[in-house]
Predict the structure.
Amino acid sequence: MQIEKNILNAETDYFSDIKAVELSILALKSTNPSDGEFKDQVVGSLRSVGWSGETRISPDSRNYIHGTLSGAGLVVHLGNNYTIHRFILTLEQMYRSGIIETGIIVTRTVDEAKRWNRLRQPNSSSTGNFCETDTLIPQIEEIEDLITIPLLVLGIESVKV
C-alpha cells in the first residue's frame, strides 16, 4: 500500500492529471461555511473540473464514493474521524473489483479541524473528532495489510477572504 500525505499549497507531481483537484479546492473562497456547505463547495468545485458524481460499488449498494476521474476514486470526508473507514473500505472494494486504480481522500488538515471545532466550542484546542490528515494517515497505516489500494490523502483548509 502506498499512502501520500499532501497538504495543499505544497508542490506534488504524484498524480499529474489530478492537479485540478488542488487548483479547484484552492479556488474556494469561504470564511465560515457550515460543514455541509464547505463539503458541497469542495465536491462542486471538483465536479466543475471533470470529476463524476457519486459512484456506487453496484447499482443496489449503499456504499459509494464522491466521484471518479482518470481511474482515481474520490472521497471528500469532512465529518467524524471514525466514519471515514466505511469510505476507505468502499475505495478498497472498488479497487479490487477493477472499478478504480487508485484512491484520493480529501479531508481537513489538523489545524482546520481545530479551527472548525473552535467554532462550536470556543475554548477547545482539540480537533473535536473531525477527520484530519495527522490522525487518518497513521490509522490507515495500521491496517495496511488489509488496504492495498494506492491512496493520496489531501488536507484542505477553507480560504479566509
User: Anything to note?
Assistant: The chain has a mean pLDDT of 78. The helical segments are 19-26, 35-48, 84-96, 110-120, 133-142. The chain has one domain: 3-156. The two ends are 38 Å apart (CA to CA).
